[in-house]
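Protein modeling request. Please complete all fields; requests missing the sequence field cannot be processed.
Requester role: graduate student
Desired output: 3D structure, token encoding
Chains: 1
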Amino acid sequence: MGNGILRHIGHFIILVVIQVMILNNIRFGGYINPYVYVLFVLLLPVDIPGWLLLLSSFGMGLTIDLFSDTQGMHAAATVLLAFARPGVIRMISGRSDFDPGTVPMVSEMGARWVLLYTMLLVLLHHTLLFFLEIFRFSEFFLTLGRIGLSTGITTIIVFLGFLLLDKPEKRGR
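Delivered output (173 residues):
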């Protein structure tokens, strides 16, 4: 239990540093904005209590907001992701009874499951984030393009993060 908490704190810190120090400072033509910090929420155990999931997600989003000067947009989008996460897990799994402490990893759920899980939740997160950012519908199609491109790139990077963090002894299965 204590080991898991330390691991999640480590993920939190590393993902904030990657997002704030690297990805927020790279220009991808103005249309692509990868937000890999969502991996923190995606890596939390499937049986985490709802209040803790929402609080942890709010903390991550607020931290990104503080470093990015985005006035709560990341907090709102990350809380929406966390709110939708249990439903998405049930929808793509067809079940809700997982072993205690199950973390949605490729070795546990399979690559296809993790890819779909990541893509759906990143799409939801990015949709709210980009519409909050622009806050008008006059650039609707441009915003849809940004959502699509950023979701694709973020999904790829986050999926690579899942592969990188997966336990080596389980990868051989």
